Each structure stands twice: as structure tokens, then as C-alpha cells.
Amino acid sequence: MDQFTSPQIGLALRRLRKKHNLTQKDLANGICSQAEISKIESGTHSPTVDLLFALSKRLQVPFSSFFDHANYKESFYHLDDDLLIKFRNREFSTVYEETKSKLNQMYIDEEVSLLLQYYNSISAHRLNKTDYRTCIVVLRQLSEKYSSTFYSPSMIIRIKSAIANLYSENKSFIHSRKVYEELLELDFESEELLLDRIRILYNFSKTLLHLKDSKAALKIVEEAIEQSLRFKDMSLLGQLYYQQGFCLENLNYEKSIIKQSYFRANVFFDLLKMEEYQQIILKNKAEFI
Prior knowledge:
The protein has helices at about 5-20, 25-30, 35-40, 50-60, 70-90, 90-105, 110-125, 130-150, 155-170, 175-185, 190-210, 215-230, 235-250, 255-270, 275-285. The longest helix has 20 residues, at about 70-90. Helix content is about 75%, strand content about 0%. The chain has a domain at about 5-65: Orthogonal Bundle (434 Repressor (Amino-terminal Domain)), CATH 1.10.260. The chain has 15 helices and no strands. It is mainly α. α10 runs antiparallel to α11 and α12 (about 215-230) runs antiparallel to α13.
């Protein structure tokens, strides 16, 4: 019997199964083995036409649903990118109203709903419609949902980072530290996620400095610098070297060692045309430049 080899089928099958709250055993019952479902979802086994028809009947979805996953993901990422750009541009009212409107629609995919709830909760907080504690409660619930239903490391990392930042912004640094420690225990499977880890390390080091733990902050900063150099990512190197210099000052290192960090920070600020940061270092750390 003909088999389909598209890797998207496994992803689509997993999403549809989760959407119907079925275990692999439930879905396989009377159709095939649980092991076969597991292999299809992981992309190591190609299902036959007959098997896909049987699974579509069990899931009560059209046969074509297994081949619409790529279009679904493209639409999902487009929505995410659109909302992210608006949020970064501080268009909080627009984000809040758009997500509220979409969440009120009668038929909405659960994964899309989770994404909309994420943007709705953080934009509501930025508009002072909710306090930071309420926002954190919502974000924690979303994180648990992503972990149990739609395993998405990037979204889990994004949500937990938002929680840590909210704690830090509101001077609850002990709670922020705990969340950052949880974050660093997660698996960063792809290079893209490893680059996210660099930003997490940088923000974590700032929290540690607020807690006056310069020794731990220095260790975190140096790990972030090492990873930035390893992946040839210069986006935060200026800030990281500045942070390194600040930690070294607090720990009373020799001036020549501190000077090296601030000098490198200034080089990267100049290279990346980060004039505001360059003015800060020239004003506040002139004795080291």
C-alpha cells in the first residue's frame, strides 16, 4: 500500500490527537499499535493511506487535515510575528484589542488561543488593566498548558522569561532568580533556542546584581560571553562585557582586568553603532577607557 513520507504528517497527527485529548493508546486502539502512532508522530515511520483514513475517522477530521499542517504553521507564525512586532513597537492597545476580538470568536484552534492569551495578558498588564501578579498567574497557567498539551520549548521559554522579567521589574528579585534558574534547566535543543539562552543569561545576571551576588553574576555573564563568541552572535556582547566589568569592579579585581572588559564593551558599542550605550560607558567609566 502507498505510504506518505511527509514529516508534516507526524506533527499534524500529534496536534490533532492532543486537540481531542487522546493518548497515543486511545488513538491506536483497534487501528494499530501504540508504538506505530509514536513512530509516526516522531517522523520515523510513514503511515499507509489506509492507516491515515482510519486515523482521520477516529479523529473525526477530513483526510486532508494531515496535509494542512504546513499551512497551519505558516499562518500561526505569521500571527505570532505580527503581534510580536506590534508589541515591541509598544502598540499595546492594538495588541490587546486584536487578541480580545479573536479570543471571542466561536471557533478557534486551541494552540492559537494560547498564543492569543499570552499576548492579551502581557498587553493588558502594560496598559495597567491587570497588576503584575495577576499577569504572572495567567502566564504560569499558559506555561503549564504548553508543557502538557502543545510541547513548544520556544513558547515555554518565552513565557517563563516574561514571568522572570515581571518579577524583576517589580523588584521581586528572589522570585525572579528562582524562575531564571528554572529556565536554565530547560533543554535548549536548537541553535535558535541557544541564542535565546544568551539573553536569559544576561537578564539573569542583572537580577543577581540587584541581589548583590556579584560572584554568581560574573559566572553567568562569562557563560553568556562564551556562548556569544561560540555562536558568533554580537547582539549583546557590548552589554555583556559592560556587565562583566561592573561585576569585576564590585569584586575588587585589578584595574587592568576591569579596564579590559570596559574597553571591549566600548569596541562593540562602537561597532554596532549603539551610541546611547557608548555615551553611558564614556561618561560613567571614563577612567577605564
